[in-house]
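Re: pyridoxal-5'-phosphate structure - here you go.
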Amino acid sequence: MANPPKSNLSSATIAAQAAGATDAETGGVVPAVHMATTFARDENYAPLNAQNVYLRSHNENARVAERLLSQLEGAAETLLFPSGMAAVAAVFRTVSNGSSVVVQSQIYWGTTAWIRDFCTRRDIALHEVEASDPAALDAACKTHSPAIVWIETPSNPWLRITDIAQAAHMAHGVGAKLVVDSTAASPVLSQPLSHGADIVMHSATKGINGHSDVLAGSLSMAAADDPISHMILADRDMAGAVLGPMEAWLLTRGMRTLPLRMREMSRNAQSLAGYLLDHPAVEDVLYPGLPDHAGHEIAARQMTGGFGGLLSFVVKGGAEAALRAVGRMQLFHRATSLGGVESLVEHRHTIEPHTGIPEGLLRLSVGIEDVEDLKGDLGQALGQ
Ligand SMILES: *Cc1c(COP(=O)(O)O)cnc(C)c1O
């Protein structure tokens, strides 16, 4: 949805009212689900509704969710995709063969693995760099003149923080677009476009939907008339990576409580981070809300209302001790993913053994349960 009306309302109000979406036909305060894949024309062969011709190009339920996300992100335009990875792919498919890209190292493993393969097949020079180190990012930009600079902040599962405004300055200095995977923050805690990013990407499967029951992704653009935005929109339409109406409707429903959920998840995670920091069985806690975290100051500057529900910690005693603790957990589900109302735990080293993840690292996605119950579960699992 292009150019949503500018709103001075707070994100809690925008989200609760789904950016004003109702069902005009019935008076329903909730929008209807429109499942039609094709739309009729009149006797003169003009579409009855010029906005709707065929579902792959126009989807009213997606437009509602896109309008809401645009308002939350402060974006000119948002496009939904059937997964976060489809959104990642949509960005990289705009890069010409033979050019180069700079991508943050040690980010979401699925992104890294797909980009490596894609760049190899397309003869694109991929430069992976520790983007939370400004000198390293600056050098990579100046040396390689990339088309795209891709960062993820906070990063998953290392919780590294990259200064978005600084990264935007460096990217723009060499004519690159800055794309930020802001999945762990959600549009409630961080609006990267306001710090100079060109595109914000989300796995909407995570906090944005928040109930572990919709797979979706999004790209929110600072400028709707930028050639890259046109390319992405045309490719989505023609190549068909569109989100179905039911998923889009569920996403809108989930987003109504997004600010509430992010606030509670952040509060719980902050409290658990402090608890784990003091725990004798714990070696290290990675959470940007901790004052000693390397990215705390930057995170405090570019995030508002909390530091998110994603938290990693390292158990003393390596893989064996970590897996023993995980096996004892009763409230934290042993499952991948993040951002849902229910808390999850993951032993990332089992999933990606060769990427430098500490063997004792456990990644928590902290939900909205009572924090004392969560502490109790971690305590008994770690052996007090
Ligand atoms: C999950 C995730 C993705 C991929 O999204 P899907 O919806 O699973 O395709 C991308 N980036 C981050 C940070 C993620 O956590």
